[in-house]
Amino acid sequence: MLFLKSLFFLLVSFTSAVMASENRQHSSHEHGVGQLDVAQESSEFQIALTSPAVNIFGFEHAPHDQEDHKMVEKKLAELEKGEVLFVFPEGANCRLKDVHVATSWADHENTKTESTEHKQAEREHRAEHEHKEHDEDEHEDHEEDEQTHADVTASWHFACAHPQTVDRIHVKLFERFPQTEHLRVQWTTQNKQGAVELSSTHSVLRF
Fold it and tell me: Long-range pairs for 195-202 at CB < 8 Å and ≥24 separation?
C-alpha cells in the first residue's frame, strides 16, 4: 500500500509538471477541460480528477444561496459514486474502496448554513460592499479572477480481484457532468504508460 501511494504521488507530481509546462503554452484552467490521472499497482487502481468547478456545478463562484448549496451537494454526491463514473471490465471484479472529493472553496463541506448565520453573512457582505463602493471595478475584477480559478479535485481508490483483465476503463464523467467536454488523461499500469484525450464520443480509456 505504501508503494502504491508513493507511485501515485510520483504520477501526480509528474502530471503536474507536464500540466505546468502546457499551461505556459496554453491558457490554464480551461472551462470544459479536466485532468484525469490513472495509476495501477498490482491489484489497486487510483484515479484522480482535477477540474474547473464550472465543469461540475455549472458555476465557479462559491455557493451563496440555497439553490447553489443544493447543486453543490448533489454534484459532490455524484462524484462520490466512483463505481458509476468508472466502469471496469466485469470479469475484473473491481470494487470502490474509498473516495475523496474537495473544492477550492474553504467552506465547501459546510453547505448547510443555518438561516440566521446566512442572513448575517449577507448583511455583512452588503455592508462591506457599500463601504468599498468606490473600489467596485477592482472588486469585480478580483472576484472574477477568483471564480476563474475555482477547482474541484476528486480521487477514487479501486481494488480488483482480477486486475490482469483490466485493459480498459469506461469513463462516464461526461454523462454525469455534461459541461465537461474533454479530459486530458495521464495513465500508468504495470507494464505501460501513456497519455490520451477523452471526450463524450471517445470515453473509453484503453491501456
Answer: 198/36, 198/171, 198/174, 199/174, 200/174, 200/175
- The contacts of residue 207 (CB under 8 Å, 6+ apart) are 166, 167, 168, 187, 189, 192, 194
In a domain, 122, yes or no: no
Q: Cell 457599500 belongs to which residue? A: 130
Rounded to two decimals, what is the model's pTM? 0.71
**132 found inside a domain:** no
CB distance 85 to 36 below 8 Å: no
pLDDT tens string 4-26: 445 444 444 444 433 433 433 33
Q: Is residue 15 a contact partner of residue 38, using CB atoms and an 8 Å limit? A: no
Residue 41, domain extent:
2-114+151-206
